UniProtKB/TrEMBL annotation:
<protein>
    <recommendedName>
        <fullName>S-adenosyl-L-methionine-dependent methyltransferase</fullName>
        <ecNumber>2.1.1.-</ecNumber>
    </recommendedName>
</protein>
<dbReference type="InterPro" id="IPR007213">
    <property type="entry name" value="Ppm1/Ppm2/Tcmp"/>
</dbReference>
<dbReference type="InterPro" id="IPR011610">
    <property type="entry name" value="SAM_mthyl_Trfase_ML2640-like"/>
</dbReference>
<keyword id="KW-0489">Methyltransferase</keyword>
<keyword id="KW-0949">S-adenosyl-L-methionine</keyword>
<dbReference type="InterPro" id="IPR029063">
    <property type="entry name" value="SAM-dependent_MTases_sf"/>
</dbReference>
<dbReference type="Pfam" id="PF04072">
    <property type="entry name" value="LCM"/>
</dbReference>
<comment type="function">
    <text>Exhibits S-adenosyl-L-methionine-dependent methyltransferase activity.</text>
</comment>
<dbReference type="GO" id="GO:0032259">
    <property type="term" value="P:methylation"/>
</dbReference>
<comment type="similarity">
    <text>Belongs to the UPF0677 family.</text>
</comment>
<dbReference type="GO" id="GO:0008168">
    <property type="term" value="F:methyltransferase activity"/>
</dbReference>
<keyword id="KW-0808">Transferase</keyword>
Length: 300
Protein backbone atom coordinates (compact mmCIF):
# COMPACT_ATOMS: atom_id res chain seq x y z
CA UNK A 1 0.00 0.00 0.00
CA UNK A 2 1.51 3.33 -1.03
CA UNK A 3 1.75 6.26 1.36
CA UNK A 4 -1.02 8.03 -0.56
CA UNK A 5 -3.40 5.09 -0.29
CA UNK A 6 -2.55 4.64 3.40
CA UNK A 7 -3.34 8.31 3.99
CA UNK A 8 -6.73 7.94 2.32
CA UNK A 9 -7.38 4.71 4.22
CA UNK A 10 -6.62 6.43 7.52
CA UNK A 11 -9.03 9.24 6.63
CA UNK A 12 -11.77 6.77 5.70
CA UNK A 13 -11.19 4.87 8.93
CA UNK A 14 -11.41 8.06 10.95
CA UNK A 15 -14.74 8.87 9.33
CA UNK A 16 -16.02 5.35 10.03
CA UNK A 17 -14.90 5.62 13.66
CA UNK A 18 -16.94 8.79 14.16
CA UNK A 19 -20.01 7.19 12.58
CA UNK A 20 -19.59 4.07 14.72
CA UNK A 21 -19.77 6.09 17.92
CA UNK A 22 -22.53 8.37 16.61
CA UNK A 23 -24.58 5.26 15.81
CA UNK A 24 -24.84 4.68 19.58
CA UNK A 25 -26.06 8.15 20.54
CA UNK A 26 -28.66 7.71 23.32
CA UNK A 27 -31.16 9.99 21.56
CA UNK A 28 -32.66 8.10 18.62
CA UNK A 29 -33.44 11.30 16.75
CA UNK A 30 -29.76 12.12 16.27
CA UNK A 31 -28.42 8.56 16.21
CA UNK A 32 -26.29 7.93 13.12
CA UNK A 33 -27.89 5.38 10.77
CA UNK A 34 -24.58 3.71 9.88
CA UNK A 35 -24.75 0.65 12.11
CA UNK A 36 -22.10 -1.11 10.01
CA UNK A 37 -19.28 1.40 10.52
CA UNK A 38 -18.10 -0.40 13.66
CA UNK A 39 -17.15 -3.44 11.55
CA UNK A 40 -14.09 -1.58 10.22
CA UNK A 41 -12.66 -0.97 13.69
CA UNK A 42 -10.47 -3.36 15.62
CA UNK A 43 -12.55 -5.19 18.27
CA UNK A 44 -10.87 -3.26 21.06
CA UNK A 45 -11.78 0.07 19.43
CA UNK A 46 -15.46 -0.62 18.94
CA UNK A 47 -17.80 1.28 21.23
CA UNK A 48 -19.71 -0.91 23.68
CA UNK A 49 -23.49 -0.52 23.32
CA UNK A 50 -23.79 -1.16 27.06
CA UNK A 51 -21.48 1.74 27.92
CA UNK A 52 -23.11 4.87 26.45
CA UNK A 53 -20.67 7.11 28.30
CA UNK A 54 -18.06 6.03 25.73
CA UNK A 55 -19.96 8.00 23.10
CA UNK A 56 -19.80 11.23 25.05
CA UNK A 57 -16.12 10.76 25.81
CA UNK A 58 -15.27 10.11 22.16
CA UNK A 59 -17.34 13.10 21.04
CA UNK A 60 -15.64 15.41 23.54
CA UNK A 61 -12.16 14.23 22.60
CA UNK A 62 -12.75 14.63 18.86
CA UNK A 63 -14.34 18.04 19.26
CA UNK A 64 -11.31 19.23 21.24
CA UNK A 65 -9.09 18.51 18.23
CA UNK A 66 -11.46 19.19 15.32
CA UNK A 67 -14.35 21.44 16.35
CA UNK A 68 -17.55 20.38 14.61
CA UNK A 69 -16.09 17.27 12.97
CA UNK A 70 -18.20 14.80 14.94
CA UNK A 71 -21.39 16.67 14.17
CA UNK A 72 -20.48 17.06 10.50
CA UNK A 73 -19.97 13.31 10.16
CA UNK A 74 -23.35 12.69 11.74
CA UNK A 75 -25.29 15.29 9.77
CA UNK A 76 -23.57 14.43 6.48
CA UNK A 77 -24.51 10.77 6.84
CA UNK A 78 -28.15 11.69 7.38
CA UNK A 79 -28.16 14.11 4.46
CA UNK A 80 -26.45 11.89 1.89
CA UNK A 81 -28.66 8.98 2.91
CA UNK A 82 -31.68 11.21 2.32
CA UNK A 83 -30.33 12.31 -1.08
CA UNK A 84 -29.79 8.70 -2.12
CA UNK A 85 -33.22 7.56 -0.98
CA UNK A 86 -34.82 10.45 -2.83
CA UNK A 87 -32.89 9.55 -5.97
CA UNK A 88 -33.96 5.91 -5.77
CA UNK A 89 -37.56 6.91 -5.09
CA UNK A 90 -37.30 9.17 -8.14
CA UNK A 91 -36.37 6.27 -10.39
CA UNK A 92 -32.57 6.03 -10.36
CA UNK A 93 -31.41 2.43 -10.62
CA UNK A 94 -27.68 3.05 -11.11
CA UNK A 95 -25.69 4.52 -8.21
CA UNK A 96 -21.95 5.26 -8.21
CA UNK A 97 -20.02 6.03 -5.03
CA UNK A 98 -16.81 7.87 -5.93
CA UNK A 99 -14.00 7.29 -3.45
CA UNK A 100 -16.33 5.09 -1.43
CA UNK A 101 -13.83 4.32 1.31
CA UNK A 102 -15.66 2.65 4.19
CA UNK A 103 -19.04 4.09 3.19
CA UNK A 104 -21.77 1.50 3.82
CA UNK A 105 -24.75 2.98 1.98
CA UNK A 106 -24.77 0.29 -0.69
CA UNK A 107 -24.57 -2.43 1.95
CA UNK A 108 -27.32 -0.90 4.05
CA UNK A 109 -29.67 -0.49 1.08
CA UNK A 110 -28.80 -3.28 -1.36
CA UNK A 111 -30.99 -5.87 0.32
CA UNK A 112 -34.13 -3.74 0.15
CA UNK A 113 -33.34 -2.26 -3.27
CA UNK A 114 -32.71 -5.39 -5.33
CA UNK A 115 -33.14 -3.61 -8.65
CA UNK A 116 -30.63 -0.85 -7.89
CA UNK A 117 -27.03 -1.46 -9.00
CA UNK A 118 -24.37 0.08 -6.79
CA UNK A 119 -20.83 0.70 -8.04
CA UNK A 120 -18.18 1.53 -5.45
CA UNK A 121 -15.03 3.16 -6.84
CA UNK A 122 -11.82 3.30 -4.83
CA UNK A 123 -8.35 1.85 -4.48
CA UNK A 124 -8.27 -1.93 -4.59
CA UNK A 125 -6.43 -2.19 -1.26
CA UNK A 126 -9.17 -0.27 0.53
CA UNK A 127 -11.88 -2.31 -1.18
CA UNK A 128 -10.31 -5.62 -0.17
CA UNK A 129 -10.15 -4.53 3.46
CA UNK A 130 -13.75 -3.38 3.28
CA UNK A 131 -15.03 -6.63 1.82
CA UNK A 132 -13.10 -8.67 4.39
CA UNK A 133 -14.59 -6.63 7.25
CA UNK A 134 -18.16 -7.12 6.02
CA UNK A 135 -18.02 -10.64 4.61
CA UNK A 136 -19.43 -12.27 7.76
CA UNK A 137 -22.59 -10.17 7.64
CA UNK A 138 -25.83 -11.37 6.02
CA UNK A 139 -26.20 -9.95 2.53
CA UNK A 140 -22.54 -8.94 2.24
CA UNK A 141 -22.28 -10.73 -1.09
CA UNK A 142 -25.24 -8.94 -2.65
CA UNK A 143 -25.06 -9.26 -6.42
CA UNK A 144 -26.10 -5.66 -6.97
CA UNK A 145 -22.96 -4.27 -5.30
CA UNK A 146 -20.01 -3.95 -7.68
CA UNK A 147 -16.47 -2.87 -6.84
CA UNK A 148 -14.36 -0.93 -9.33
CA UNK A 149 -10.71 -0.67 -8.30
CA UNK A 150 -9.46 2.65 -9.61
CA UNK A 151 -7.36 5.62 -8.62
CA UNK A 152 -10.03 7.91 -9.98
CA UNK A 153 -7.94 10.97 -9.18
CA UNK A 154 -5.37 9.84 -11.75
CA UNK A 155 -7.38 7.66 -14.11
CA UNK A 156 -10.35 10.03 -14.44
CA UNK A 157 -12.58 7.04 -13.71
CA UNK A 158 -11.70 5.35 -16.99
CA UNK A 159 -12.09 1.91 -15.40
CA UNK A 160 -15.70 2.31 -14.35
CA UNK A 161 -17.00 2.80 -17.89
CA UNK A 162 -15.82 -0.72 -18.70
CA UNK A 163 -17.12 -2.35 -15.51
CA UNK A 164 -19.55 -5.24 -16.09
CA UNK A 165 -23.11 -4.07 -15.57
CA UNK A 166 -22.33 -0.38 -15.89
CA UNK A 167 -24.54 1.25 -18.51
CA UNK A 168 -23.91 4.92 -19.23
CA UNK A 169 -27.21 5.14 -21.12
CA UNK A 170 -29.10 4.88 -17.82
CA UNK A 171 -29.71 7.84 -15.51
CA UNK A 172 -27.04 7.61 -12.82
CA UNK A 173 -26.76 9.08 -9.34
CA UNK A 174 -23.23 9.83 -8.14
CA UNK A 175 -22.17 10.34 -4.52
CA UNK A 176 -18.80 12.03 -4.03
CA UNK A 177 -18.11 12.44 -0.33
CA UNK A 178 -15.09 13.86 1.44
CA UNK A 179 -12.62 13.68 -1.40
CA UNK A 180 -12.67 16.92 -3.40
CA UNK A 181 -11.08 19.21 -0.82
CA UNK A 182 -7.50 17.98 -1.24
CA UNK A 183 -7.68 17.53 -5.02
CA UNK A 184 -6.45 20.07 -7.55
CA UNK A 185 -9.00 21.89 -9.68
CA UNK A 186 -7.74 19.93 -12.69
CA UNK A 187 -8.47 16.66 -10.88
CA UNK A 188 -11.88 17.91 -9.82
CA UNK A 189 -12.53 18.85 -13.45
CA UNK A 190 -11.50 15.35 -14.55
CA UNK A 191 -14.05 13.76 -12.21
CA UNK A 192 -16.84 16.10 -13.27
CA UNK A 193 -15.89 15.63 -16.91
CA UNK A 194 -16.20 11.86 -16.55
CA UNK A 195 -19.60 12.20 -14.91
CA UNK A 196 -20.75 14.54 -17.67
CA UNK A 197 -19.34 12.47 -20.54
CA UNK A 198 -20.50 9.07 -19.30
CA UNK A 199 -23.99 9.91 -18.07
CA UNK A 200 -27.24 10.90 -19.71
CA UNK A 201 -28.83 14.29 -19.03
CA UNK A 202 -30.75 14.49 -15.75
CA UNK A 203 -28.26 12.17 -14.08
CA UNK A 204 -27.34 13.61 -10.70
CA UNK A 205 -24.41 14.14 -8.38
CA UNK A 206 -24.14 15.14 -4.73
CA UNK A 207 -20.81 16.24 -3.31
CA UNK A 208 -19.34 18.20 -0.45
CA UNK A 209 -16.87 21.05 -0.72
CA UNK A 210 -15.47 23.98 1.23
CA UNK A 211 -15.29 27.69 0.39
CA UNK A 212 -12.03 28.93 -1.08
CA UNK A 213 -11.95 31.60 1.62
CA UNK A 214 -11.61 28.89 4.26
CA UNK A 215 -8.61 27.33 2.52
CA UNK A 216 -6.71 30.60 2.13
CA UNK A 217 -7.74 31.81 5.59
CA UNK A 218 -9.26 35.06 4.34
CA UNK A 219 -12.47 34.29 6.24
CA UNK A 220 -12.56 32.76 9.70
CA UNK A 221 -14.94 29.78 9.82
CA UNK A 222 -15.77 27.82 12.94
CA UNK A 223 -13.40 24.83 12.92
CA UNK A 224 -11.57 26.04 9.82
CA UNK A 225 -8.14 26.70 11.29
CA UNK A 226 -8.06 23.34 13.05
CA UNK A 227 -9.20 21.50 9.93
CA UNK A 228 -6.53 23.14 7.78
CA UNK A 229 -3.83 22.19 10.27
CA UNK A 230 -5.15 18.63 10.57
CA UNK A 231 -5.19 18.12 6.81
CA UNK A 232 -1.66 19.50 6.51
CA UNK A 233 -0.42 17.14 9.22
CA UNK A 234 -2.24 14.23 7.57
CA UNK A 235 -0.46 14.76 4.26
CA UNK A 236 -3.62 15.94 2.50
CA UNK A 237 -3.31 19.74 2.37
CA UNK A 238 -6.48 21.48 1.29
CA UNK A 239 -6.43 22.52 -2.34
CA UNK A 240 -9.85 22.82 -3.97
CA UNK A 241 -12.47 25.25 -2.78
CA UNK A 242 -15.10 27.47 -4.31
CA UNK A 243 -17.15 30.34 -2.99
CA UNK A 244 -20.89 29.78 -2.72
CA UNK A 245 -21.62 32.75 -4.98
CA UNK A 246 -19.54 31.16 -7.75
CA UNK A 247 -20.84 27.61 -7.45
CA UNK A 248 -23.74 27.86 -9.91
CA UNK A 249 -21.52 29.34 -12.62
CA UNK A 250 -18.71 26.85 -11.89
CA UNK A 251 -21.11 23.95 -12.38
CA UNK A 252 -22.81 25.46 -15.44
CA UNK A 253 -19.43 25.77 -17.15
CA UNK A 254 -19.05 22.02 -16.62
CA UNK A 255 -22.52 21.11 -17.94
CA UNK A 256 -24.28 20.83 -14.59
CA UNK A 257 -27.20 22.70 -13.09
CA UNK A 258 -27.10 23.37 -9.36
CA UNK A 259 -30.30 22.05 -7.79
CA UNK A 260 -29.56 22.33 -4.06
CA UNK A 261 -26.96 23.78 -1.71
CA UNK A 262 -27.00 22.87 1.95
CA UNK A 263 -24.89 24.88 4.39
CA UNK A 264 -23.69 24.19 7.91
CA UNK A 265 -26.74 25.91 9.39
CA UNK A 266 -29.18 23.77 7.41
CA UNK A 267 -27.32 20.59 8.35
CA UNK A 268 -27.71 21.51 12.00
CA UNK A 269 -31.40 22.38 11.85
CA UNK A 270 -32.34 19.36 9.73
CA UNK A 271 -30.35 16.64 11.43
CA UNK A 272 -28.92 17.73 14.78
CA UNK A 273 -31.96 18.88 16.74
CA UNK A 274 -32.44 16.45 19.60
CA UNK A 275 -35.75 15.14 20.92
CA UNK A 276 -36.15 18.26 23.06
CA UNK A 277 -35.65 20.54 20.07
CA UNK A 278 -32.19 21.59 21.22
CA UNK A 279 -29.18 21.61 18.84
CA UNK A 280 -26.94 18.68 19.70
CA UNK A 281 -23.86 20.50 18.40
CA UNK A 282 -22.46 22.75 15.73
CA UNK A 283 -21.28 21.77 12.26
CA UNK A 284 -18.09 23.51 11.05
CA UNK A 285 -18.84 26.81 9.38
CA UNK A 286 -17.17 25.73 6.14
CA UNK A 287 -19.37 22.66 5.55
CA UNK A 288 -21.23 22.65 2.23
CA UNK A 289 -23.07 19.93 0.30
CA UNK A 290 -24.24 20.56 -3.27
CA UNK A 291 -26.52 18.65 -5.62
CA UNK A 292 -26.52 19.08 -9.38
CA UNK A 293 -27.90 17.48 -12.51
CA UNK A 294 -26.33 17.08 -15.94
CA UNK A 295 -27.87 19.46 -18.44
CA UNK A 296 -26.14 18.25 -21.61
CA UNK A 297 -23.17 16.27 -22.75
CA UNK A 298 -20.00 18.25 -23.26
CA UNK A 299 -19.42 18.95 -26.93
CA UNK A 300 -23.08 18.53 -27.94
Amino acid sequence: MTDHVETLRAAALGDARARAFAALEPDRKIRNPDTLAREFLDPGERPDPDEPEQVGKFRTNLEAVLPGAYYLQNARTFHLDACLRRAIDGGFRLVVLLGAGFDTRAHRLAGAEHDVRFFEVDFGEIQREKKAALEHLPGSGARNIHYVASDFEADALADIADAPGYDSSEPTFFIWEGRSVDMTEDDVDAVLDFVSQHSVPDSGIVFDYVPRSMIDGSVAYYGGEEFRAFMDQSGRPLSFGIEDRNLRRFLAQRNFELTALVTNHELETRYLMDSDGVPHGHVPGYARIAEATIIRRRGT
